[in-house]
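Q: Hi! First time asking for a complex rather than a single chain. Here are the components, and I think there are two in total. Is that enough to go on?
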Amino acid sequence: MSAPEAPLLIFIGQPNCGKSTLFNAVAGYKAQTSNFPGTSVKHTHSLVNIDGRLLNVVDLPGTYSLHPADPAEKVALRHLFQEKPDVMVNVVDASILSRSLELTLELLEMERPMVVALNMTDLAEKKGITVDAGRLADLLGVPVIPTVAAHGRGVKELLEAAFRCLESPCRGPLPRWSAEVESVVDKLVASLPADFPCIANPRFTAIQMIESGHLFCSEFLEEIDSGLKATLDGIRDELASRRGMPAYEAIAAERHHLSLKLSEQASLVRGRTRRSWGERLDDVLMHPIWGYPVLIAVLLGFFFAIFKIGGPVESALLKPFAGLKSWLAGEFGSGLVFHVADGLASGIGGGVAIVLPYFVPLLFLMALLDDVGYLARAGFLLDAFMHRIGLHGKSVSPFILGFGCNVPAIAATRILESRRDRILTSLLIPFIPCSARTTIILALVAFFLGPWWALGFYAANIALVAVLGRILSLFLKEASPGLILEIPSLKVPSLKSIGLKIWFQLKSFALFAWPLLIGGSVVLGLVQALHGDAVINAALSPLVSGVLGLPRELGVTLIFGFLRKELSLLMMLQALGVSYQQLMTVVTANQIVVFTVFVSLFIPCLSTFAVLWREVGKKIAFLSAALSVTVAIVLSVAVRLLL
Amino acid sequence: MAIENDSQLPIPDRQAGRTVRTLRRPKDDEMTNLVQSPRGATLRIVDIAGGESVRRRLFALGFNVGDDIELQALGILRGPVLIRNLRTGVTAAVGRGIAQKIVVEAADERP
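A: Yes, that's all I need. Here is the structure of the assembled complex.
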């Protein structure tokens, strides 16, 4: 994790301000240690070496304010308050400067060394806004460095400013509120006992306490110091009666107006004659009617692009491996050596020839949709439909991420404010075909039966999610709080940042998933050589051949599918003892569909199960497993009988 | 300040001697809620009649009482509304239920 001697630098900013892109630009710049793919809901560490000086860089999830509304924001605050960074880099979006400065004002109160990264200056210019970084630095009293994270512009200057800040800490003057607010803050600071566990400083603590309302452990305060609790309540009431609004709102309004003032002083807004391309495009993308054909076209384009690229590449790559298999059989006969070597070849070859051709285009398209900002727009369009299944538009983005991998998708449910929404979304995500299952669907159903079959499979899968959502929401009756979702400006995707994202994910595939595929295939080879597969297959044959009507040799592959879904596909060939091109000689089209349905649905894979356990608890994880086994059996039998 | 039902919203009786109408039919009143406003209208937020968490969330996204906003789109099938804050430039999608609780009045067009 972190080297204790390296100074700790944290990136903090509001969601969609380009913070993770900036972090990737810094970490990708000269990262020394391993770097885990940064989903924006958990913090990411990286040890960076800049001109011989080490820096421990941490990327925190985006947070609008220091008053968390969802678990992702809580992660940000926990790190901010507990890890006591040596320097904070506050990333602000220059195109919506005044809103971004509201968090900056809160951070200034902490009196910690801080540098402001004035990001997305290019987007601001396009909107006709020129922010004067020097003027803003004078106003805030901390260094302000203009950056364009997507192109890596300003990154070096930012790091230099951070190092200067470490040598002679740069702290801004405290923002001053109106006399009314200042007087109540002073009063509370004076009432805090000397040993009160202050965060940062007494003034910051006092403002947080007034603003936090009943969210901030008021019962706890009542227990430990009822006198202080009474003082705090009195102060809140005093401010509320003077302003005619709750205390938290009075402070929020002051901060809002102060930010507007600062932003007006530091930026020049030119009158625009025409709207930007992004705004004009948004008129279509989020049009109440035309938005939907576009959405369908985007999803269809997504599917066909992956198939059209992956299919031919897969065929081309498979040829040498098929040759290898027959050469191995000729060389080693059918003993232990052959089975192990064959397992090794299937694991390595399967990873290269079957998984990567579909995985890489999928990663590219997911990163593209994410980078452009289309996920939030899909959330707007699908909100009304999500209400039908008891959720709202904010769940759309985790669902779409689920098409990549269910694990980050379930982690991404942390952006949802209510626990009930998180549980329902997390229970449905394992039914979304992830990249592993897309590989199976495309490599089996589309490859052998045609792309329309695969598309039908997808459509049925989405319908299944809708039906299950509808049924599950009958049991989870609590009302959903409703949608409040920021729609970030459309951005021109940066190939550099997409490339970095793909690189991090491929690295994690090569480090974690691929060894599992190779290891699993070798273990199957060993089991086959020792005739252990016959025992497992015999035990599972009532289900596999009795209920599902599949060749009984496939029993053992289903067990391994729990580790990684693609493993079932690779092992299917290994278990049946045929090459990919000869598959249709031993199974029928019907059996391929039944196998795909069952493998896709039957249980969340090991990683998904683990993340479910961590995010929503053991009970929900087991419930999810039971649900998927039931659904898989019922649907596979239905498909078998109908086709 | 947790008025959950929009029919209970306080409406000032500006025209004495006339019946005070409920929010659902605000013909004689300048105040209305977001959902009943025409697309493209420039509006000023007068009140957010939701619970504390909804109010806090809207403040955090940069939508405060007194801000001028533009109603950009209304989703079909009781879908969300799309609003843009004319002062901060922030755009947000707000679910229909919450939009009904955002009390607005017509604002003067700004340059």
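A: Residues 179-268 of chain A form a domain with the Helix Hairpins fold (CATH 1.10.287). Let me know if you'd like any chain examined more closely.
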